[in-house]
Amino acid sequence: MTLDELKAFATIAETGSFTRASALLHRSQPAISRRIDLTEQELGAPLFERVGRRVVLTEAGVALLPHAEAALAAVQDGEKAVRARTGQAEGALTLAVVGTLADAYLVDVLRRFQAQHVKARVELQTANSREVSDLVRRGQAAIGLRYFPEADTRLETTPLGAERLYVVVPAGHPVKARRCKSLTTFADDRWLGFPCHPSQPESFGSLLQAQLIAGGVHAPTITEIDSLTAQKRLVEAGFGVALMPRRNVRDELAVGTVRVVEVSSLRAEIPVVLVQRRGGYRSPLATGLVELLRSDTPALLDGA
User: Fold this and answer.
1) How far apart are CA 72 and CA 74, in angstroms?
2) Partner of 121 at 20 to 30 A CA spacing, among 107, 229, 266, 287?
3) Per residue in 26-44, pLDDT tens?
4) Residue 48 phi/psi, 5° resolution?
């Protein structure tokens, strides 16, 4: 198998489409199809099957994908290592981060990093936690910031701290107290949360369900909203209540459109971790940013 064939295969697996893969790789669709045909002939097994308008991996494709991604990422590592050794290193570093973490505290860390590396350029990509890990594993990002530890052994996970979660209610909510004893106070409320994914047993959505059940709310009404901004707007509109980090509703708290109610029995936290590809090339820029994130993030999260 050639690198071109592996790249075509990995891009189709990522996009679920021969057409989108051909556009991303700047190749005609017949050329992309030919590369896959050659790979399947060499392996003696089909790699994709059509499901509606998408193509999905067969069992053989699933088996090949992590090795294809590792090979492509290793080639990128080799190029970066040679550039660094010969003084051609690019002053760019890609950081993949969960959108809700791209907030003031991260800006503070990046500002310090830029002051130390004036010619460096940090490129941010926002995604959900699973996608952050995917970007790092494929070598498309040097560093990732996500919620919850990563189970994939191809990635190294470094705990950075945790964000405490609070019950956030609309300004006109019937509960007027700033504190209450238990979550049963909100047993009749509609809750807004992130979707639960079977492939992610540890997730924001799963955490909400677990906390409600542990808090005595055994049949919660949960509306799944896959956007923190949308959740905040819906809370403001009186559509429901949510469990969120305080810093994510600072602006809304300042103008009085939402309130935070502290629940005595609630000790909910969401861990923040840094992920890097195990055995991958670590540039001096990446090493410097990781050191700053490890030293600054815990205190910044605690003060959120």
Assistant:
1) 5
2) 229
3) 999 899 999 999 999 999 9
4) -135, 155
The SS3 assignment for 158 reads: strand
Q: Which of 82, 116, 140 is the last residue of a domain?
A: 82
pLDDT at res. 281: 86
Write the burial class of residue 77 (CB in 10 Å: 0-12 exposed, 13-18 middle, 19+ buried).
Answer: middle
Q: How many domains does the chain have?
A: 3
Residues 250 and 280 in one domain: no
pLDDT single digits (tens) 57-115: 999 999 999 899 889 888 888 877 787 677 665 577 899 998 888 776 688 888 889 88
Mean pLDDT over the full length of the chain: 88
The reply to whether 185 and 133 lie within a common domain is no
Residue 250 corresponds to which amino acid? R
Closest to 170 measured CA to CA, from 92, 100, 78, 233: 233
Which tokens is 198 given? 């079977």
CB atoms within 10 A of CB 228: 19
User: ∠ CA(164), CA(168), CA(169), 5° rounding?
Assistant: 165
Owning domain of residue 74 = 3-82
Q: Rounded to whole angstroms, how far apart are CA atoms 289 and 275?
A: 12
Beta bridge partners of 222: 191
For the question of whether the overall pTM of this predicted structure is more than 0.90, the answer is: no
Distance CA 183, CA 39 (A): 56
Residue that the structure tokens 């050639």 belong to: 2
Say whether both 156 and 129 belong to one domain.
yes
